Amino acid sequence: MILSPGSTELTLDPAHQPEETPAPNLAELTLEPVHCRPELLDACADLINEQWPRSRASRLHSLGQSSDAFPLCLMLLSPQPTPEAAPIVVGHARLSRVLDRPQSLLVETVVVARALRGRGFGRRLMEGLEVFAQARGFRRLHLTTHDQLQFYAHLGYQLGEPVQGLVFTSRRLPATLLKAFPRAPSSRPPSRASSLTAQTAPRASKGPSLPPPPPLPEPLTTSPSPPAGPPPQSLLETQYQDLRGCPIFWMEKDI
Q: By the 8 A CB rule, do 26 and 120 touch?
């Protein structure tokens, strides 16, 4: 390395340039929960913060909540050349249970190291998630994306509907209580209790009754009734938005 006097620009000496680190072998990658490898928490936090900057303390706290009871954070690991060295964190994904869907999981925070993108590591991560979820009895994965629709479509994901992930699970909470969370408040005003006193019926007016009105004419053209529910999303347009108001696509896959 050559440092020119009076200059802040560093120039690498071609004769002493470091060799490029070879890409990890896909066949040697492993998928392990974060809470089983606490010594890799810092490296995993750095990987995620490289994509979505956040305070280190907050990121470590979020990763520290990983458990077998879900939410659960998984790391895609590559072994070091020497057995004594710690593995390299190549990717990360978080799995959460889905409210009212006991056989589904919500996939979040999917990220692969920048230097390794476009080499099949994202596919390896997602395929590993499917095997991990299947082994634990789950049959469907849900996720959201802003701009990776084609990537997930190649993996077999299809456009789906929004679901609600559980940020925590506890056996102390009954299912009836959990089911109450996503319900929207009723728009109808509260109904009043029926009066115990009978209402007096209106008296009929005296005199001859009026003839019924003539029927309304039929419309010239009948337009089909609009479909119920929100319009379907497509790979080019969606009606869903994230918390920042950006378009977001919901996708799902049966595994």
A: yes
Contact by Cβ (8 Å): 150, 232: no
218-231 pLDDT per residue, tens: 655 544 555 555 55
137: left (phi > 0), else alpha (psi -120 to 50), else beta?
A: left
Q: Which residues of 2-20 are buried (b: 16+ CB within 10 A; e: fewer)?
A: eeeeeeeeeeeeeeeeeee
**Global pTM value:** 0.68
